[in-house]
Amino acid sequence: MKWAQVVRATANDAATGRRDTLEHDSLTAPVGDEATELAREHELHDLRDRHGRASSLADVVLGGQDGLVNVLGLVLGVAAATGSVHVVLAAGTAAAVADSVSMATVAFTSKRAEASRYVAEREREYRHIRRFPVLEREEVREIYRRKGLQGDLLERVVATVTSDPDVWVAVMMAEEHGLVPIGASRTLRSALVVGVASLVGSLVPLAPFLILPVAMGSWVAIGLAVVVLFALGAYKARTTVGHPLKAGLEMAAIGTASALVGYAVGALFRSPG
Hints:
The protein is mostly helical and about 270 residues long. Helix content is about 80%, strand content about 0%. The chain has one domain (about 55-270).
């Protein structure tokens, strides 16, 4: 990989530049002590404070919240309008299935659109480095200048990156456009996760009506929704950034308020009987 050349060049030049100017105990530490410290830091790095890996958290939150809030709003509205458990279950089940399929389709098409954009921008970058190599080389130079590289080290890195068109384009795609390739497997997985999460979320407000009358089922459905939305928001905050309590309360409040709009609409159409 050409990236290895970039890394080696950067590391070698950086070490040369610092050798006469930096003094630190760790640079002269015995091999044994260095190995012990490396093992300790490896444990902290990989076990206690490891980086988050690519996950489906965003898809789970998107599908689960959407399915729960949409179906809760619908069943509350239908319950307010009709007072019939049978109608609530029929309408809620239909909405749950339709919403999950719709969300999966939206996730699939949006990922396909992102993938198409990546391909289009990559092809444009290949054209640019062929037609405007001086300008594109200056863009690479500016990217690494902003990272703190200067002088001969900067020029060597630029020369290494721009010596291979594939590496050159990869740098521009990541650094200039902030785009990453999206494969077919990732697209399908995203659609599946969003669809399943939406269906599972939809079942939460429906479940109480299987065993409870409309009035009691509505209150229990709201309570379950609040609990699930709070847990979802808190979990998202714990795995990303933010305060779990604040994030949980925020998601629960927004989701419940949105669903209550459905109840208000349904109440306007309440049957006299």
